[in-house]
Amino acid sequence: MLDYSKEADRYDASRGGEPRAAAAADAVLGLLPADTRTLLDVACGTGLVTRCLAARPGLRVTGVDAAYRMARMAAGRVPGTVVLGDSRQLPFPDESFDAVSTVWLLHLLSGPEETASVVAECARVLRPGGVYVTTVDKAASHDVRSDIDAVLAPRPVRLAVDRVEAVDAYAAEHGLAPAGRARFRGHGQGRSPRSTVDDLRRGWFTSIPPDGPLAAKLAARLADLPDQEAPRPDPQFSLNAYRKRD
């Protein structure tokens, strides 16, 4: 897994920046009840999405992130509303928020136990009748059936911890019922052959050791593709919403 404190300075530029953040925030807000007044943005990262969420009139947004440099950047963008904290043990009392979001978090977790614990914490701090919104199937969203995806197809792929059926099950265990779905475009995240080689070398593909023979083999095949700098289509990310039973 990447060190997100080290990744903080390049994070926004490498992941679509403001357009992607605005699309994510609009999709999250579209799944919230009209009377939502407080939202906890868990794993808020650099705060780009958090700032867009906080722009909604009448909505008070709090961000929390475990990576110090990420949280510091977010605090600069949304002053007075960001805290340092672990998503597996959120530093808030039970039933503190009308809504909770985890955008691009669950796919990073180590396995089912950790994923279940994060969903449990989000449910714990959510008020009855409130809504939890999360991205699901994140890795699958990046497969746009391009020539790059064809090259990457033989790589080992672990069973995704954020697959819909798994998240549905964790949610149900903690009194959360399905309440809607949405999709949004990952602006600026379409892969080029050159950028994919860079991702291989810095360990973005967690199942491929960056200095190993498979990474070298895939990098060589990617280098043979045409239009080395041309991004392929952007991914389309998926959001699921869950309502906490009264």
Protein model, in words:
The protein is 39% helix and 20% strand. With 246 residues, it is an alpha/beta fold. The protein has a single domain, classed as Rossmann fold. The protein has a seven-stranded mixed beta sheet with strand order 3-2-1-4-5-7-6, sandwiched between helices. The protein is globular and about 55 Å long.
Euclidean distance between termini CA atoms = 37 Å
Q: DSSP helix count?
A: 10
Uncertain runs? none
Q: Estimate what percentage of residues fall within beta strands.
A: 15-25%
| Radius of gyration, whole Å | 18 Å
Oligomer: single chain
CATH class division? Alpha Beta
Query: How many distinct domains?
Result: 1
Summarize the entry for a quick read.
39% of the residues lie in helices and 20% in strands. With 246 residues, it is of the alpha/beta class.
Task: Walk me through the topology.
Layout: H1 4-14, H2 17-30, E1 38-42, H3 48-54, E2 60-65, H4 68-77, E3 82-84, E4 97-102, H5 112-124, E5 126-136, H6 138-141, H7 147-152, H8 164-173, E6 176-185, H9 193-201, H10 213-223, E7 236-244
Parallel strand pairs: 1-2, 1-4, 2-3, 4-5
Antiparallel strand pairs: 5-7, 6-7
Helix pairs in contact: 1-4, 2-3, 5-8, 9-10
